[in-house]
């Protein structure tokens, strides 16, 4: 697994806040057996997502409901660009 480099994450959008999460000891997992750019970690009941090639950049934080919607839409091809 990749080393963790992020310590705390805060996200605020239009009055909507997610909790500060300590990601310094997160167990980051890649979807393609360690070779992919996207990594996720399950932390304190939330799902964190980051770019594995740039782990110092901010992570996206999802609630379980948001993560489920994202995964279902991805499986349905909602984000396909081809």
UniProtKB/TrEMBL annotation:
Name this polypeptide is given: DUF397 domain-containing protein
Pfam families, sorted: DUF397
Disordered: region residues: 1-24
Domain of life: Bacteria
Residue intervals of the DUF397 domain: 29-75
Biased composition (Low complexity): 1-10
InterPro entries reported for this sequence: DUF397
């Amino acid at each position: 697994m990749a080393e963790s480099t992020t310590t705390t994450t805060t996200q605020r959008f239009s009055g909507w806040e997610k909790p500060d999460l300590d990601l310094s000891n997160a167990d980051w997992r890649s979807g393609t057996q360690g070779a992919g750019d996207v990594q996720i970690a399950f932390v304190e009941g939330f799902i964190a997502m980051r770019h594995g090639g740039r782990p110092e950049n901010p992570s996206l934080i999802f609630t379980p409901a948001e993560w489920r919607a994202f995964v279902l839409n991805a499986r349905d091809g909602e984000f396909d660009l081809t």
